[in-house]
Amino acid sequence: MGRLEGKVAIVTGSTSGIGIGIAKVYAAEGATVVISGRRAEKGQVVVDQIVEAGGKASFHYFDITEPASIEALIADTVEQYGKLDILVNNAANVALKDGRVDELTLEMWDAILESDLRGTFYATKCAIPYMKEIGGGAIVNIGSMASCAGDLGSTAYACAKAGVDIFTQYVALQYGKDNIRCNCIRPGLIVTPENEAKVPQMLKDIFLGSIMVNRYGCPEDIAHAAVYFGSDESTYTTGQIINVDGGMNSHAPTVAQFRQMDSRTW
User: Fold this and answer.
1) Distance between CA atoms of 181 and 193, rounded to whole angstroms?
2) CA 11 to chain centre
3) Nearest to 57 by CA among 38, 84, 82, 32
4) Considering the entire predicted model, what is its pTM?
5) How far apart are CA 139 and CA 101, in angstroms?
6) HSE-up of residue 211 (Cα within 13 Å, Cβ side)
7) pLDDT per residue over 5-50, tens digit each?
8) Which one is catalytic: 157, 170, 216, 228?
9) Annotation marks residue 122 as catalytic
C-alpha cells in the first residue's frame, strides 16, 4: 500500500468497468483520484465508495469527443490539486457500431477513431505541459488485444487501438527527457459487473480455452499493471506495451484445439 502516495491521478472513463477498477486501486495505493466521465451520478457513487474506504477522490464531467471537455478536465484538476502526476487514458466508446471493412461507413469509422484514438491523443497533449512544469509524470494508455492480429469484425476499433500502441511509443520517445513516461496496457477478456451478463458463455469458453491461466480477467488485473506504470517503481520503464490477457496472445493459435484433443501436437 502507498505506492502512489502523494500523487494526483486522472482516470478517464472511470464511471464503469476497468476505469472503476483502476480508480479504486489507485486510491487504495494513496493517490488522489479524479473520476471522470459523462455520467455524474455513477461517478459520484465511485467517489463515495473511495472516500468511505478512506481514499481521496472527486468527480469531473468528461466527454472524450469534446476537446473543450478534455481541456477543462486537465486544467481544473491542476487548479484544484496543484499538479497532475498521472493520466490514465482509459475512456473509449465501446457502444459505437463497427464491423467488416465493407460494412463500415465513413461516419462509423470517424466516430470510433474520434473516441478511441483522437481522445487519447488530445488528453495526452493537454497533460504534457503540466507534467513538464512539475518535472515529469506518467501516462498510462489502455489499449486492446484487438490490435495484436486481424479478426472478423471490429475493424475500426482494432485500428484505433493499434494507433494507441504506436502513439504510446512516440510520446515515450519525444518526452522521455522531460521525465514523462508513457506505457500501454492491452487488456484481454475482462469480465466486469457491467458486461458479465452480456458476454455469452460460448464466448467465455472460447477465451478460456486459449487463456493460459484458469480464469477470466477482472478490472483489478488491469489496475495492478496501471499502478506499476504510474508509480516511481517504473521510472526506467517507458514506451512499453504489455498484454494483460492471461497469456492468450503468447502462444500458437491452435493450442485450444489441441487441448480438446488431449494432444501436444498433430
Assistant:
1) 31
2) 9
3) 32
4) 0.93
5) 32
6) 20
7) 999 999 999 999 999 999 999 999 999 999 999 999 999 999 999 9
8) 157
9) no
